[in-house]
Amino acid sequence: MVLVKEREMEIPVIDFGELDGENRIKTMSLLDHACDKWGFFMVENHGIDKDLMEKVKEMVNSHYEEHLKEKFYQSEMVKALSEGKTSDADWESSFFIWHKPTSNICKIPNISDELM
């Protein structure tokens, strides 16, 4: 498995271009290992158009800025952290408890025709 050092952390990299060849079993094994031991991984050669990925990224960032950012910074968790206080909550719980809106069912981002 290839590991990419991203800042101070190594991240497993899975080459999806190998899924349809003679290295399928090895690639699936690497994928299983990354999921089981790491919980995440980086994907290479996934076949998704880079322009489309950038458009989706812009849409997600715009939705965050418009609907989520202000509430996130007003959360008790962020206030405590900015004051230097610590918490027993882990980062994942903090993110999902305080960042996720109570209901976002009515706040569906505008998806341009280009992404459909």
From TrEMBL:
The protein in question is named: Non-haem dioxygenase N-terminal domain-containing protein
Q: Report the domain of life of the source organism.
A: Eukaryota
Gene3D superfamilies recorded: B-lactam Antibiotic, Isopenicillin N Synthase, Chain (2.60.120.330)
> Residue ranges of the Non-haem dioxygenase N-terminal domain?
11-99
- Keyword flag Iron: yes
- The transmembrane residues are none
GO molecular function terms noted in the UniProt entry: metal ion binding
Cite the entry's keywords alphabetically: Iron, Metal-binding
**Record carries keyword RNA-binding:** no
Spell out the InterPro entries in the cross-references. Answer: DIOX_N (IPR026992), IPNS-like_sf (IPR027443), Plant_2OG-oxidoreductases (IPR050295)
